[in-house]
Design brief:
carbohydrate metabolism, ATPase_NBD, 404 residues, alpha/beta, Nucleotidyltransferase, domain 5, binds adenosine-5'-diphosphate, phosphotransferase activity, alcohol group as acceptor, 5-stranded mixed sheet, binds magnesium ion, 2 domains
Length: 404
């Protein structure tokens, strides 16, 4: 038998595994690296986060990714080169973190590598007649390069199985959220405010699991960050929501932005900066004569848009004015008081807390969830949630790369 397969069988039979989860979302702020100890699998999974860091992407990394990111037309040569380059970059970042944490790579069982999303193309969003009805998504940072670069068996490219099984390839949070954070005491909404905002609804543990589902709700930080970058070259985001809090919502522009059919479409749904990008904003500004709107007012309006997107999706689930489950926030937008304030206004009556209250640091949550998926791929079973709202496919996800 191939020694690497024997090693994998051995790992699968151990009571626990040490897994580095990696995540880099659409914000291009950096690579989230979460070293986790996972004991057991499935509903019995126990997770301890041993170390976490976000390794920031420098200007050069962001520049290279933006050459292809969310662009309908790119240099195929550039894209081809970026794939192994990002795999090596991520491998180096993992090794740097392990060195800082004084953990030997040989003491880590698996890397769970999400890769860098460069294009998300659900059927409802792309306009390629040749592929009508087909969902697709593309993450770069090849897993073989991560495995070879770290010397650690790597599970990568999780989203393709979800697509192959009939999903949109996102959000994948349903699985890990369900396994780690279902509670017999309460139903929960786990609201992640990344570049795109999404939530997972978890019914009370023991209730009908098929009611669990995840959906994107629209932009989270992506339009905010783009506006800051365009008006204040050198700044990446509106620290503490200070600029947005100094502005006033422009009702006309907000109305035009909310006129996009995405906000009224049935749940669950997924999206990305391919839709919620500069062209979408420019069209709404042109239509409302707000092209010259100042940055503060623009950010206040975009914060409102993100919050209303979340509120509309929540109301689609529970009905307007209905009592809401507890809301637990995560992702970088959870650090933006302007966004949290708007969410509280639009979801009155909901109790808000950070996922930290559940023992999951909000910045580490997404990277942790990929460690959970890798653990299931190696030691678990397809997670069966049943034929509920999402028809969450019962699959294990990820491709396995050997070092050496
Ligand atoms: N202190 C902060 N104040 C305001 N916004 C913040 C703060 N920290 C992070 N963010 C926002 O969060 C984003 C990163 O969120 P993240 O959850 O990493 O998203 P992604 O999954 O898309 O990478 C940043 O680009 C920024 O918009
Ligand atoms: Mg990020």
């Amino acid at each position: 038998m191939n020694a690497a397969i024997a090693r994998l069988c051995h790992l699968a039979q151990q009571p626990s595994r040490r897994i580095v989860g990696l995540m880099s979302g659409t914000s291009l702020d950096g690579l989230d690296v979460a070293l986790c100890r996972l004991t057991g699998h499935g509903a019995a999974t126990q997770l301890v986060l041993e170390h976490f860091a976000t390794v920031p992407y420098g200007d050069d990394v962001r520049r290279r990714i933006r050459q292809v990111f969310a662009r309908e037309q790119v240099s195929l040569e550039y894209l081809t080169l970026l794939n192994p380059w990002l795999g090596r970059l991520h491998a180096g970042m993992v090794l740097d973190c392990l060195r800082t944490w004084q953990v030997a790579p040989a003491a880590v069982d698996l890397v769970a590598s999400h890769g860098q999303t460069v294009y998300h193309a659900p059927a409802h969003q792309h306009s390629q007649a040749d592929f009508a009805g087909l969902n697709a998504t593309l993450q770069l940072g090849d897993g073989d390069h991560v495995a070879q670069g770290t010397g650690i068996i790597t599970v990568s490219d999780f989203r393709q199985k979800h697509l192959a099984a009939g999903g949109e390839g996102a959000p994948l949070a349903t699985y890990g959220d369900y396994l780690l954070l279902s509670s017999p005491a309460e139903a929960r909404l786990l609201l992640n405010l990344g570049g795109i905002a999404n939530f997972t609804y978890l019914p009370r543990a023991g209730a009908d699991a098929s009611a669990a589902f995840s959906t994107d709700t629209g932009p989270g930080n992506t339009l905010l960050d783009a506006a800051v970058r365009a008006h204040r070259p050198g700044l990446q985001y509106d620290e503490g929501g200070r600029l947005a809090r100094a502005g006033r919502v422009h009702a006309g522009l907000l109305g035009a932005l909310l006129g996009h059919p995405f906000f009224a479409a049935a749940l669950p749904k997924t999206t990305g900066p391919e839709l919620f990008g500069p062209a979408y904003l420019a069209a709404a500004q042109a239509a409302t004569g707000t092209t010259a709107l100042g940055l503060e007012d623009l950010l206040a309006t975009l914060v409102e848009l993100s919050a209303v997107g979340v509120a509309r999706a929540v109301q689609q689930v529970f009905g307007p004015g209905a009592p809401l489950p507890a809301v637990y926030t995560s992702g970088g937008g959870a650090h933006n008081p302007a966004l949290l304030g708007a969410l509280r206004r639009h979801l009155p009556g909901a109790a808000f807390a950070s996922t930290a209250a559940l023992g999951v640091p909000p910045d580490a949550k997404e990277a942790i969830l990929f460690a959970v998926l890798a653990n299931e791929a190696v030691a678990g079973q397809p997670v069966a949630l049943g034929a509920g709202r999402q028809r969450v496919p019962a699959v294990t996800m990820g491709k396995i790369s050997w070092p050496g």
